[in-house]
């Protein structure tokens, strides 16, 4: 996607909807002291451009799990597309990207403890054809985790 | 948080909102088979007790962020928590997680250009006391990026 121009009002609307996407246009218009039509036009433009998406997030404190990073090297780079597709299809994996540096692919999941993670890797990841080495890192505390920006992919 | 776990109805509301974040309370009520007032009550509780939220997310590329770096950091001479809190103050840093293993912290940094990324890594993070080594990797093609769980503020 190409960058789109976002002015100050766009950013304030995005920030407000970033806290609660079900806030009514009328409410936002009132808070930002602009017309409801202006808010509606801005939001529609962002949606039409595919620049924003809605998501339901739950509080990580509920789950008692932390991010685990899987640094994956491929046995052969030809397998890249298939490996990425296979990782993407695993519901427990929330992030997949090819990398420049550290590994061929980074996949992120959530795990409660190292046993939990080891089982997940063994049962769901290790057998994917084309995967060579997997190194992993398990988190135990989150100090910052913004969620207002992400890569929107199909 | 034991008293504030999600109820089965909360779970149903969240699943329906994951499919359509703007589904009206009336439609949610109809699908689940409870009253509209009950839906409103559940939504209010989810919000007030910081259990779940429906949020809008902005695409990185649309906002001009071409670079997302996943950086492993080794800490020496200071508690990793203190270094993490210093790094967390940097605006371009989206995520700071304490990890066990080869590195002490995993962070994610956004930048609009390679120059901007280098500046954040070298001039901002690199100058924080207690950082022994940094291992940056750049995400070249992100094919999945979901935040279904996050620590609420």
Task: Provide structural commentary.
The complex is a heterodimer of chains A (154) and B (153). Chain A is an alpha+beta fold and 154 residues long. Chain A is built from 5 helices and 6 strands; from the N terminus they run αααββαββαββ. The longest helix of chain A has 13 residues. Chain A is elongated and about 55 Å long. Chain B folds into 2 domains: 47 residues, Arc Repressor Mutant, subunit A; 72 residues, Alpha-Beta Plaits. Chain B is α+β, with helices and mostly antiparallel strands. Chain B has a 4-stranded antiparallel beta sheet with strand order 3-4-2-5. In chain B, strand 3 and strand 4 form a beta hairpin. Chains A and B meet through helix 1, strand 1, strand 2, helix 4 and strand 3 of A and helix 1, strand 1, strand 2, helix 4 and strand 3 of B. Strand 5 of chain A pairs antiparallel with strand 3 of chain B, so a sheet runs across the interface.
Which key terms come to mind for this protein?
heterodimer, A: 154 residues, alpha+beta, Arc Repressor Mutant, subunit A, Alpha-Beta Plaits, elongated, B: 153 residues, 2 domains, 4-stranded antiparallel β-sheet, 35% helix, 32% strand
